[in-house]
Specification:
The complex is a heterodimer. Chain A is mainly beta. Chain A contains no helices and eleven strands. In chain B, 33% of the residues are buried. Chain B is globular. In chain B, the strands form two sheets. In chain B, strands 2, 4, 5, 9, 10 and 11 form a six-stranded mixed beta sheet that branches. By secondary structure, chain B is mostly beta strands. Chain B starts with a strand and ends with a strand. The chains are: A mainly beta, B mainly beta.
Chain lengths: 116, 111
């Protein structure tokens, strides 16, 4: 149980385009979902926390107009990277939690974004 | 602020024990985790320990917690080639909604 999927697993796009990444909890209802980014050989950095039906809470330094997060249902959250640039190339990982606390998070397999 | 630190690399011989160390600064940490990340993949929760525990053992994995020194370790017994990965130490506390990750320790196994 507690499986989280992400789609796509990898994506290559041109600079200036927008890319949407989906995160789904397959066998449980995710009240809270988290979005992380991971640069090569670095740790995970939390970008934002989203609760179903409400606006996402962004970490300091993360542009909310550039990284649009939608958590419209208890099983789906999306991250849209708008007007992507090469510096946005990274590994994006989502996680999902049953409750509002982040103490038990189940991680997706990640999406590798490459912006040309 | 909250900080979690780990050494970046560890190399062990196949069959030996691996010990990965971690220190943290948040004295109110309630949960401490070890995650494993294989190349190009997401994170797999290996084990976690509550702050009121000193030790937790799960098959080949042993977690030791020294709360006074804010030191956490993960011991992998009989290390195998499949254990090659990056291991992340992480912490959170019950009132928080986010997990703070360390920088990860890359474990490599030599024959």
């Amino acid at each position: 149980g507690a499986v989280v999927s992400q789609h796509p697993s990898w994506v290559i796009c041109k600079s200036g385009t927008s890319v949407k990444i989906e995160c789904r909890s397959l066998d449980f209802q995710a009240t809270t979902m988290f979005w992380y980014r991971q640069f090569p050989k670095q740790s995970l950095m939390l970008m934002a926390t989203s609760n179903e039906g409400s606006k996402a809470t962004y970490e300091q330094g993360v542009e909310k107009d550039k990284f649009l997060i939608n958590h419209a249902s208890l099983t789906l959250s999306t991250l849209t990277v708008t007007s992507a640039h090469p510096e946005d190339s990274s590994f994006y990982i989502c996680s999902a939690s049953h409750g509002t606390s982040g103490t038990e998070q189940f991680f997706g397999p990640g999406t590798r974004l490459t912006v040309l | 602020g909250e900080d979690v630190e780990q050494s970046l690399f560890l190399s062990v011989r196949e069959g030996d024990s691996s010990v990965i160390n971690c220190t943290y600064t948040d004295s109110s940490s309630t949960y401490l985790y070890w995650y494993k990340q294989e190349p190009g993949a997401g994170l797999q929760l290996l084990t976690y320990i509550f702050s009121n525990m000193d030790m937790k053992q799960d098959q080949r994995l042993t977690v030791l917690l020294n709360k006074k020194d804010k030191h956490l370790s993960l011991r992998i017994a009989d290390t195998q080639t499949g254990d090659s990965a990056i291991y992340f130490c992480a912490e959170t506390h019950s009132s928080a909604s986010k997990i703070i990750f360390g920088s990860g320790t890359r474990l490599s196994i030599r024959p």
